[in-house]
Amino acid sequence: MNIIILGAPGSGKGTQSALLIDRYDLQHLSTGDMLRREIAQQTELGKAAKKVMDAGQLVSDEIVIGMIANRLGEQGNLFDGFPRTLAQAEALDKLLNERDEAIDHVISLEVNDEEIISRMLERGRADDNEATIRNRLNVFAEQTQPLIAYYEGQGKLHGVDGTGDIEAISARIINAIDA
Ligand code: AMP
Predict the structure, then answer these.
(1) Where are the domains of the chain?
(2) Positive/negative CA dihedral, 120, 113, 111, 29
């Protein structure tokens, strides 16, 4: 099984991913985590990516698609923070298709902007200052939001209310997948 968890930065994708990988025995593929590892290891890719990430912009499609392509294996996958552009979504469909696989479910975590901003300021990650957060929300609206229509058109989209208790949100996601 291949699942995408889609949502604005701070919508709870990482938290809910932890539950889903356990429950459905999936490989967790978070491009944000992969990029932060590159930064920690001070690789050339990491150094270039850090500037882009600190500004709240997106790293190039080519780089993130390459990272994902390198990690697809025998196990099912949970894609967290990828795809973020239509070009990435199309590349992912193609990569999976070549392996006779496909995306089964896309969970869209729905959280309003005010809640997102207050959650992210609490989280306090390096790229979580208010200017960057606003930038990331704009980037999400412009570049990532179109994916909702893309997956709706494929009949794979499940909109899930991402507010309230973590357990309640998890239960909504599981209901959507198991239905
Ligand atoms: P995340 O941890 O998913 O919020 O990602 C943190 C940052 O990494 C983002 O704000 C982007 O700068 C970069 N990033 C992560 N995933 C992607 C992606 N799929 N495409 C482009 N940039 C990404």
Answers:
(1) 2-178
(2) negative
Judge whether residue 41 has pLDDT over 80: yes
Using the mean position of ligand 1's atoms as its centre, give its distance from the Cα of residue 81 in Å: 6
- Cα separation, 100 vs 98, whole angstroms: 6
98 token code pair: 């070549």
Q: Which residues are catalytic?
A: 13, 84, 123, 125, 136
Please tell me the pTM assigned to this model.
0.95
Which ligand 1 atom sits nearest the alpha carbon of residue 52? Answer: 12
Q: What is the CATH number that goes with domain 2-178?
A: 3.40.50.300
Q: 38 CA distance to ligand 1 centroid (A)?
A: 13
Terminal C-alpha separation, the chain: 14
